[in-house]
Amino acid sequence: MTSEDNENTPLLNGNRDGVNGTASGKDRPTRKQKLASMLRRLFALHVEKRILFAGFFITLSFSFTQVPIFYVFHLMVCDVFYSNHPPYQGTGDRCSRNEIAAGTATQYSILGMSTTFCGTINLLVAGWMAKRFGPRTALMVQTFVPAIRVATQILGVMAGGQAGIIIFQCTQLITVIGGPVGYILVANIIAGELVEPLRRTVVFGMLQGCIMLGQGIGYLSGGMIGDGWGIRRPFEVAFCSFLLATLYVRMALPFIPATSLSRGNSKGFAGFLSPLRVLAPQKVLLGSGIVMKHHGVLFLCAGVFLGVLATGYAPLLIQMYATAVFEFNQGDNGWLMSEFAFMRAAFLIFVFPFIISNGRKWYLTRNQGWNSGEAEPASPPRLATDPEELEAPIGSLAEEEPVGSSAAKEDEGTAFDLFFLRISLVVDGALTMCAAFATQKWHIYLAAALLPFASGSAPAAKGVMTEMCSQSRRADALNALTLVENIARLATQGLFGFVFAALAEIGRPHLTFFINAAIAFLAACVLLLSRFPPEGSKPMTVEESSDLQSRDPESTEAHEQTRVSRT
């Protein structure tokens, strides 16, 4: 090699183009190659980060239109009003009338009720699609169908008046197939399948934090886009964002076969309602071979229902109380809710993982300290009963006795998640009760900043739920828990709306905070009845339960009668 040769000199066909043997222009990366390299680096990120960004991106797409849609209804109701009344004469806003405000509130309430009703059905549809076609395809549907809905709403904005109102109300039927509730369920299903067991609760919390972050940014940016570029522009931005989100889901998230979710579950219409069967007492197989019933999931869902009943109304309750007592205007409430959303996102993304990881270590250390002085006989290893736990017989190994399963413990320290869930509801009740003592406006802002620090109950409940159920029922378990949360949100709006109105009439609206806190404390007490299955036990599928019953029905029935779990 000559002195002019260096590492850039081609080994074959050593013609050089440029100084010091640099490669020719044909060898330089093109723009397409640079873009492909950038995309490879992007999609080479850990699957957790890709799931979190998907949750943020999709939520951002949904949130662009949440603020402008109210103003759109205000303008359309105003058009309808003046179509039946004389034209406005005078200065100021022609839509600033009590009749128009009442009509806007009525139409927006109808929109909210239809969204909630269709969203509840969307939960079952999204869960069924995830088990039928796979989670990634289901998530693509949950992002592409809303793009069609937003495109139809653009036509409603252009039509205006009564026609625009009818178009907007009818577009909510599209929510049954793809809506703002089903995508959260499918995203959690993907996280539960791809993330390692010890990281599930943390990722559930971070995913919820990314969703809150997307909501906060979407609310602010949607209103700013509408003010700066016209009321139709946020819907156009949301349409393009949904299409990009669908493309991102297809390219960034890995494929999960539908068989991994539907194995051992019912087919057809029974499979469509299979999430409801998760709420029934489960049969678990102990290491000794005895079958027992476990009621932990039932008490967990009951506690979560009461917890959401208490905590789900807190943001709206603070708004109503601040408006009634401290005369907050629309701008004040906007900043208040933005503060609440961003603080909750910051807690779930940064603080919640730290609490879970260190709390599990502390919980294990404490339990080991308690058990160190107790002389416990060594329990025999559990025999491997699943085919995937046994190695294929090779040669003479086929005649050997089955050995104890060497599967690593996946639930080490996850008992802290249930402990944290109970404590979180107690702290939430205490912080909510403290809001009743607010005497100045800054006290309300302080309450909105502190309440998110008790917002880890929802992801903790999801983590506990996935540990209590078998792998084949994990999707149904998350679906059932999300359905319980959705029903609780419906109930809390009616319950505390009536309670606040009744107490406000007698001049004591602050007592609503004490009632809210009492329900949160009751939820923590109910969760004391929820426990994990005994150590070494295994949740049984429907097929395993029926097979065991058919093999030895009398023995199985006797075991169940004598060993029914009280937890």
Automatic annotation (TrEMBL):
Recorded GO MF terms: transmembrane transporter activity
Membrane topology designation: Multi-pass membrane protein
Highest taxon of the lineage: Eukaryota
Keywords noted in UniProt: Membrane, Transmembrane, Transmembrane helix
Positions of region (Disordered): 1-31, 536-567
A GO CC annotation given for this chain: membrane
Cell compartments where the protein resides: Membrane
Compositional bias of kind Basic and acidic residues: 549-567
Keyword Transmembrane: yes
Transmembrane segments: 51-73, 108-130, 137-159, 165-190, 202-222, 234-253, 297-322, 334-356, 419-438, 444-465, 486-504, 510-530
InterPro entries: MFS_trans_sf (IPR036259)
Protein name in the entry: MFS general substrate transporter
